[in-house]
Known about the structure:
By secondary structure, this protein is of the alpha/beta class. About 35% of the residues lie in helices and about 25% in strands. A nine-stranded mixed beta sheet has the order 7-6-5-4-3-2-1-8-9, with helices on both faces.
Amino acid sequence: MLFNIDLHVHTDRSPDGCSTLLEIAAIAKLKGLHGLALTDHDIMMHEGDSMRLSRELGILVVPGVELTTEAGHLIILNPKRNLLGLSMKEAAHAASIDGSPIIIPHLMDPISHGIGEEQALSLLTYSPLIEVLNASTFSRYNHKASFFATSHSLPAVGGSDAHLADAVGDAYTVVDSPSLELGSVLAAISDGRTMPSGGRTSLATAAKTVFARFMKRISRA
C-alpha cells in the first residue's frame, strides 16, 4: 500500500517552529497525509511518545530529530539513544547500529545547513536516504541533491521542512508499506521503498512563516 508521509516537520518546540502539533496534525489530515515525521531541531522524540500521539491525533506520527552537527543537519528517524552533541559521523554510526533510518536533508543548500557533497560521500557506508525534494529549498539545490542520489543509487525522499502548519505536506514521501503501523513504515523507509512527491512551498506561505518566526522572537524578547 502507498502512504503519503511528510518526513520533515517542525513544531513550535523547535526554536524557529511556529505551530503546535495539534495545528500541524489538522492541516496534515486536510491535505490527505497519512503520517508525518516530527523532526524538531535537537529535540529527541522516541517511539513510545509517537505511538501515543498517533492514537490521540488520528494520524501516524513518526519519531525523529533533526540534529545540528559540526558538518550540518542530519535527520534520524526513530532514534534509540541520545544523539545530541555527537559528530555527524558518530551520530550516523550510532543510528546505523540501532537500525534508525538516516536522512540527509537539504543536502546542497548551504543556507539551510546542508552538509554538502563531500560530507555526504563520507556517509555512504551508512546507506542514507537523500531528501531530494525539500519544499523550503530552492529548486536548484533540490536538483543537485537528486543528481547526487541518482549517481550513488541512494533512495530519495521528500519533506516540507515546515516550520508553520500551512506548509505541512507541500512536499512529502510516498512510502510503499504493507501497513501504516510504525514498524512497517520504518522498515519500508529503511529499505528505500520511497518516492518524493509534491512541490515547493508558495511565496505567500513562506512570507507567513517569516512573519510568524519574527513574532515568536519578539514575544520571547
